[in-house]
Amino acid sequence: MTVPSTQPDPTHGVPDRLIKHSVRYADHRAVQREHLTPMMRHYADLKDQYPHAIVLYRVGDFYETFFQDALIVSRELEIVLTSKDGGKEVGRVPLSGIPHHALDRYSATLVERGYAIAVCDQVEDPAEAQGLVRREITRVITPGTILEEGMLNAKRNNFLAAIVIAGNHWGLSYADISTGEFLTTQATGLDQLCSELMRLQPAEVLIPTNAPDLGGLLRPGERSPHVPESLPTQFCYTLRSQAPFNQHEARQRLLERFKVRSLEGLGCEHLPLAVRAAGGLLEYLETTSERSVIDTTKSKTPELTQVPLQPICTYTISEYLTIDPQTRRNLEITQTVRDGVFHGSLLWALDRSETSMGSRALRRWLLQPLLNIDDIEARHDTIQELVRNGILREDLKAMLNQIYDLERLAGRAGSGTANPRDLVNLAESLSKLPELARLVAQAKSPYLKALQHVPPILEQLGKHLQAHLVDRPPLGLKEGGLIRENVVPQLDEMRQQAVDDEKWLAELEKKERDRTGIQTLKVGYNKAFGYFISISRAKADQCPEGYERKQTLTNEERFVTPELKVREGRVMNARREIGELEYEFFAGLRSQVGEQAEVIRKVAHAVAAADALAGLAELAVYQNFCRPQMSVGREIAIVEGRHPVVEQSIPSGFFVPNSAELGSPAPDLIVLTGPNASGKSCYLRQIGLIQLMAQIGSFVPAESAQLGICDRIFTRVGAVDDLATGQSTFMVEMNETANILNHATERSLVLLDEIGRGTATFDGLSIAWAVAEHLATEIRARTIFATHYHELNELASILPNVANYQVTVREMPEQIIFLHKVQPGGADRSYGIEAGRLAGLPSSVIDRARQVMTQIEKHSKIAIGLRKGKAKPSERAKEPAQQLDIFTEL
Ligand SMILES: Nc1ncnc2c1ncn2[C@@H]1O[C@H](COP(=O)(O)OP(=O)(O)OP(=O)(O)O)[C@@H](O)[C@H]1O
């Protein structure tokens, strides 16, 4: 053991107001182990075993942390840093403790901040312990392996991911252990990997390395030479050894786990990187979560419990509409750009699910829209049926409202962490399934038909649980009161015996008073002596034969009788035995549920999808959405479309609907001009959102919409400095534009807002022009190009597949009225100076701006050689360079 000679300030980073005692030892390794008290020594040993986790050590009603962990806990949770005796020669060591009932809350904060936690519980009754109470690590929680209800966000998945990178190829596997989803994929291009990670927002990413510090957890924002620089830094990375990620070991592990001979049926036999990532992930789960379920009511060491995972599902990125991270951000799919909050996002506007499962499904769909027209229409059909049949929709929603989170309940049962109330809730939900099936018996659409069949085993299981468990069991497992009467004869017998004995004890006082004639005689109970008969000292000598003196107090004598001791022993034993037997029965019920976790989750999946769709149907009715007509063509024809979020955020009837036509035979590229704040960005986004909503299978906010399937949606909206990577606004913009030009196809939808704004006007305009031209002629992507450079309107007269649209305003003497109406034609001015005037710029500045503007307009002309022959781009390239010189010198 190394003992640093000088200690750094151990309280570094902990605010003074939290420091109650001055402490030494910021590191448990700095103390000679043999000098520590037995408890501290145990803690230090555990710390050696779990060097990367904060060890929360149960002492009485608290979870205590010592040494370095105490400092972290104090700093992160704003908890007082105090101290505890570490041993005679050690003195006081840092201590920070949290109340046991607040474990989930505090753990959630620590885990959210990227710390792993090892929970050490007392595994024997302190009253029975001889010496130090036996304690064991009962659960290791890392950000990606949370199962506790109180620590999980009900409405989103909590993914653990694992990646394997080989050159430009990569494998990515991810699982949500609370819901059992387990997927894997393989692809090429690290930018695609980053994009997948950004979509998933995993709570923790495992990465195989040669790092000496294996198991180390990099918290968000931390860097390590072992994590490739190209990967996003906002996630927690856990450095793992290479071994479980090697092909043979990983494959073997998957074969054993899913009890198959080949991975063919799971779809990944020929995807080595996908297999390696999945195998590495599984090994991590086995070493962290699967050893952790311990019955803390008993002293025996538990059986190994497996986290129930569904059979791994192999997917390919190209199955889904590609939305890169910028687009996801710009379209504000799950959070707003400005504040990064859920309120105001698309998901916020669309989610009317009754269950958390439905909300999670909708979130997944929004982040992974579909490409397959049949799959999309299956969802549209379901919404249509629910829109048309309002009674069915309302009844369905009312029933879904009574169904608990079956996915997570099944997970907790399977991993042995479900409490009695979980099972009662699960039983109640299972009992609703046949009713649900009856409700949708006549339904025709695919997602409702999926609810028509309830596996008989689940019906039986629900009944079995309800027959055994009381309606309102306590949360605790030890106290009994879980199992109904008349279902377990042995239990009934024991209870009857206990009742008889308790009755005898209750009646004893009266009986003995009558027998002895001592009216002040009392029967009492305390923890140290158990039951006793108390007689005042004055009357003590009148006690009958058979009374044994047990204790003498100032005013009373306490006695016991042999029969009292027998009855007491029986009551105590009976209570303990009843508690144990009930627990055994409960654990049996829980594992029966765990065995059916996969079936439950399959049904839960169907319920979740139906719930998300019923929510979308309700939204369609109340917000007046229409069913989009999907095609494999390129057309986008939206009549009177609306922005689904903005229209819900402003008073009803104030939103001005706008139409859009893009793709053959309509133009491919629309140059959209209009004054500041007239609604360009809103229009642009609304088209992206309508397309995206259609492809998740939702109805859309429009009078009608005909939409060809898009392979990708790209956006370039607004200018944001990427301070984290030190890139300027302009460079960010150019990078994003380059990404679009390099990846867009004629099936893509490209939404560009003010390209070229971040540099000098001429450069900006030139770039904007060239980008628009490239998109229209080379790529032919369906594009909306919002710009303040109205010079770009010239493009429409050169290129047949370009059209000009403008957002109109009405000019009044003192103000501009925004009509928010998009109409054909290009705006000839931008009203920027008027906007400046309205914003309160001094009138001298406004006047001068007008003068300068007049001068510029007089002297500038767009010298467009391109216009002359409307030549094809390839021919143009051969023409003299001066033709691209679109401005003359002032
Ligand atoms: N169709 C519409 N109906 C009603 N209000 C709208 C509509 N479109 C936009 N708005 C409102 O106008 C505001 C400004 O819209 P938006 O940001 O799209 O303008 P812009 O033309 O892109 O402005 P800038 O050029 O300054 O970026 C929005 O916050 C929205 O509330």
Automatic annotation (TrEMBL):
Residues 748-764 form the DNA mismatch repair proteins mutS family domain. Residues 869-890 are annotated as: Disordered. SUPFAM superfamilies: DNA repair protein MutS, domain I, DNA repair protein MutS, domain II, DNA repair protein MutS, domain III, P-loop containing nucleoside triphosphate hydrolases. CDD domains: ABC_MutS1 (cd03284). The keyword Transcription regulation does not apply. It holds the Pfam family MutS_II. One of its GO terms (cellular component) is cytosol. GO terms for molecular function: ATP binding; ATP-dependent DNA damage sensor activity; damaged DNA binding; mismatched DNA binding. This protein is involved in the repair of mismatches in DNA. It is possible that it carries out the mismatch recognition step. This protein has a weak ATPase activity. One of its GO terms (biological process) is mismatch repair. ATP binds at G674, P675, N676, A677, S678, G679, K680, S681. The gene is mutS. This is DNA mismatch repair protein MutS. HAMAP family: MutS (MF_00096). SMART domains: MUTSac, MUTSd. The keyword Electron transport does not apply. Belongs to the DNA mismatch repair MutS family. It comes from Leptolyngbya boryana NIES-2135. Keywords: ATP-binding, DNA damage, DNA repair, DNA-binding, Nucleotide-binding.
